[in-house]
Amino acid sequence: MKATETPQSAAIPPGFSKLRWLALLPLAALAAWTYQYFAATPPPAPPPARMAPAIPVAAATTTREDFPVYLNGLGTVTALHTVTVRPRVDGELIRVAYQEGQKVKQGELLAEIDPRPFNVQLQQAEGQLARDEALLQNAELDLQRYRTLLTQDSIAAQQVVTQESLVKQYQGTVETDRAQVANAKLQLTYARVTAPITGRVGLRLVDPGNIVQASDTGGLVVITQTEPIAVVFTLPEDELRPVMRRWHPGQEIPVTAYDRQGKNRLAEGVVYAVDNQVDPTTGTFKLKARFPNPDQALFSNQFVNIRMTLDTLAAVAVVPSAAIQHGVNGSFVYVVRDDRTVTVRPVATGPAEGNKTAVRQGLAPGERVVVDGTDKLREGTQVELVQRDGQRQPEPAEPKPEPPQRGQRP
């Protein structure tokens, strides 16, 4: 029996499958061309990674120089000698011969007390001396006559001995009178009050017209010696050993006095005395320095800052103090290499003075160290050298090649 055809197959027109494949051929060709194009074209390269910008920093060059070692202390100016001038006799002050604040020399007249009473005492003493000298002279003449009569056996020997005793008595009286005359002259001298030392007088304590007495405790004026003048200052007891190591051989230890702010230099001197004990309450010891003070820059009881030069480190590397950084492993600096990258360099620091620090080990002269802008630096960080005002630092000048000599090829 012959199979019957389905309505669907009967509805497909003949040649339809060939037409369908012919329509798909352009699509296949387009797909093949597209595949070949993208397969032959390499993928675009990824964008290059952005390099970290150079960090601007300020750098300084390490130098080699002699570095002084200072010790700083607080001191008070004291006069080498301070004298309160007091009257040595009683009387009326009739004259003051100095100006307040005047510089006086030893032996110069300062004041005068009424000398009339002392002149009277001197005249009385001289009159008593003249009377007793006359009595002595008469007794000596009698003694000579008595001795002559004794040789003639005209008087008793006892009378001669008595006369000799009388002569000795008058001699003692004359000596006493002479001492009284000298004392009267001395009291008259004391009526003129003179300067016992060379120095500067202070303010007048007693005005002319007042009655002064030798028992007065206030005195007439105070004189302080200002040339030279001394300063007593203290240092921590930890510095005692290096100070005594310098002091015992007899070497001079120079010191400089500065004002209260420590900015203005007042005078220069040397240490000439060290105390023999340490103050247990403050842990300090005292030293005394002497200053010539010709310009009167130092005054008694003035507060000063003392800088003592203890030693000098010869030919040591010196860097700005701002370059020294501190970490858990100690002190270090950032050294700028030739490729403008930084490296961390441990250093052994020495004493510091002002804005400079001595480096005992770890740096060589001529190396550049970062002094500003260290916050973002790490090992190998690229840097750009700028000045502290923001301007770029000039590159170090390269040495110019020497011109070829005659007979040499360039």
Walkthrough of the structure:
The protein is α+β, with helices and mostly antiparallel strands. It has a domain at 58-62 and 315-385: Beta Barrel (conserved putative lor/sdh protein from methanococcus maripaludis s2 fold), CATH 2.40.420. Helices cover 26% and strands 35% of the residues. Strands 1, 16, 17, 18, 21 and 22 form a 6-stranded mixed sheet that branches. Helix 3 packs antiparallel against helix 4 (157-190). The longest helix is centred in the first third of the chain and has 36 residues, at 116-151. The model is unreliable at 1-12 and 405-410 (pLDDT under 50).
Task: Compute the CA-based radius of gyration.
Answer: 53 Å
N- to C-terminal distance: 114 Å
In total, how many beta strands?
A: 22
Largest sheet: 6 strands, mixed
CATH topology of one domain: conserved putative lor/sdh protein from methanococcus maripaludis s2 fold
Class derived from helix and strand content: alpha+beta
Low-pLDDT segments, ≥5 res: 1-12, 405-410
CATH architecture of one domain: Beta Barrel
One letter per element, helices H and strands E, the order comes to: HHEEEEEEHHEEEEEHEEEEEEEEEEE
CATH C-level of one domain: Mainly Beta
